Amino acid sequence: MNTHNWYSGFAKTASRFCGRPRTFVLAVAVILTWVITGPLFDFSDTWQLVINTGTTIITFLMVFLIQSTQNRDTEAIQIKLDELIRAHTGAHNALLDLEELEEEVLDAFRKKYIALATAARDGLEQGAEDTGTPEP
Q1: Do 65 and 73 contact (CB within 8 A), yes or no?
Q2: Following DSSP, what letter does each residue of the chain receive, concatenated?
């Protein structure tokens, strides 16, 4: 089995599981159990170490799970946006896959669109419409 496919499948399943209300309730129950058992263990260092170690490990693993989920979601959104640009007549196909460009090139595109937005807002103040394609 491919490691990437295994991890991707695991991350999707774990993400769905961790995002459910039942999982949150389970986490609260674990913490309440830990708090309630405090007097039984005289609030010892070991008692504290158990929750500290457990939460640290879970937090460490969740960082990778969240990052994987965000990466997958971001890539899917980018592909959908690229398809909308590609399918729209008159759209600038140079905007496809912008996230892969260097910062200087992105800044040039950003400046162009800031100028277009500024011109559209100025036109609105003078009673013009801001719909349509602003380029000739």
Answers
A1: no
A2: --HHHHHHHHHHHHHHHHTSHHHHHHHHHHHHHHHHTTGGGTT-HHHHHHHHHHHHHHHHHHHHHHHHHHHHHHHHHHHHHHHHHHHSTT--GGGTTGGGS-HHHHHHHHHHHHHHHHHHHHHHHTT----S----
* Tens of pLDDT, residues 18-38: 989 999 999 999 999 999 999
| Amino acid at site 102 | E
Where are the domains positioned within the chain? Answer: 3-92, 101-136
The angle formed by the CA atoms of residues 107, 109 and 113, to the nearest 5 degrees, is: 115
pTM summary value: 0.66
Per-residue pLDDT tens for 75-119?
999 999 999 988 988 888 888 888 888 999 999 999 998 998 898
Please say whether the beta carbons of 85 and 93 come within 8 A.
Answer: yes
